Amino acid sequence: MPYSIMLDAGHGGRDPGAVYNGRQEKDDALALTLAIGEILQDRGVNVEYTRTTDVYESPYQKAMEANNAGVDFFISIHRNSYPTDNTVSGVESLVYDKSGLKLKMAENINEQLESIGFVNLGVKERPGLVVLRRTKMPAVLVEVGFINSDTDNRLFDDNFEDIALAIAEGILDTLQMSGEISSMSSGYTVQTGSFRNPQNAERLTAELKEQDFPAGIAEGDGFFRVTVGAYPTLDEAAAMEQKLRRAGYQTLVVSR
Ligand SMILES: [Zn+2]
User: The whole model's pTM is what?
Assistant: First the structure.
């Protein structure tokens, strides 16, 4: 199933965002957002936009639009600014908190942009931002360089297409990861032994069962593997692994 993503060009209409020597954040954001969307669409992602023209919508409206559309991800494109001109440069990505796929996506996007030549200022938590707080799906706000940094503006203008591609790649890398995770839908188990001789596997299984571990034998490739439990998440498998290790067993979490 293709992924869907809501791309949000920051600001718009009566809200220009940051301004530097007549250059307005809302224009850079819109141009870049449309370029990113085109690449993602070509790569099979369902792309929706909060705006494709110079109109104003509140951050709350944008978040609700994404929620109502039921998209898988929300990406907001901005340019940064610093109180004094030409002091700071670089890219940073903002997330509600540093966990899950949104963190991975933010890191991937930053790394991609770093390869263009931007300083990587990292991922920051901004739980107060409405588009991060009110969206129900993983959301990332990317600050694509400082609009009041001549260095960043030069990078932005000279590498515009590459920047769009970099952000798209950062998003696509993460979607691919997410797909790989969900394709392991059969979950995880904790392997405690692997034997050529089935009797050894049976002995270990019996010993584990005596201690109330839900052990079983899986046969394959000429091996009899003793596994404990079946868990939908890595966390749960890791918890069982801890118990087994405390009981003195050698363990390995494997996908089923
Ligand atoms: Zn902004």
Answer: 0.72
Q: How far is the CA of 25 from the centre of ligand 1 (A)?
A: 7
Distance (angstroms) between ligand 1 centre and the Cα of 80 equals: 6
**C-alpha 124 – ligand 1 centre gap (Å):** 15
Give which of 67, 73, 113, 70 is closest to 93, Cα–Cα.
Answer: 113
Residue entry with tokens 């030409």: 86
Residue pair 184/255 in contact by the 8 Å Cβ criterion: yes
Q: What is the whole-number distance in angstroms between the Cα of residue 168 and the centre of ligand 1? A: 19
Tell me which residues have their CB within 5 A of the ion that is ligand 1: 10, 17, 78
Instruction: Reply yes or no on whether the pLDDT at 183 is more than 80.
Output: no
- Which domains does the chain carry? 4-182 (3.40.630.40), 188-255 (3.30.70.1070)
The CA 215 to ligand 1 mean position distance, Å, reads 54
Q: Which two tokens stand for residue 147?
A: 């609009």
Condensed to tens digits (0 to 9), the pLDDT of residues 120-149 reads: 999 999 999 999 999 999 999 999 999 999
Q: Provide the H-helix boundaries in 58-194.
A: 59-69, 100-114, 130-133, 150-158, 160-183
Angle (deg, nearest 10), helices 150-158 and 160-183: 80
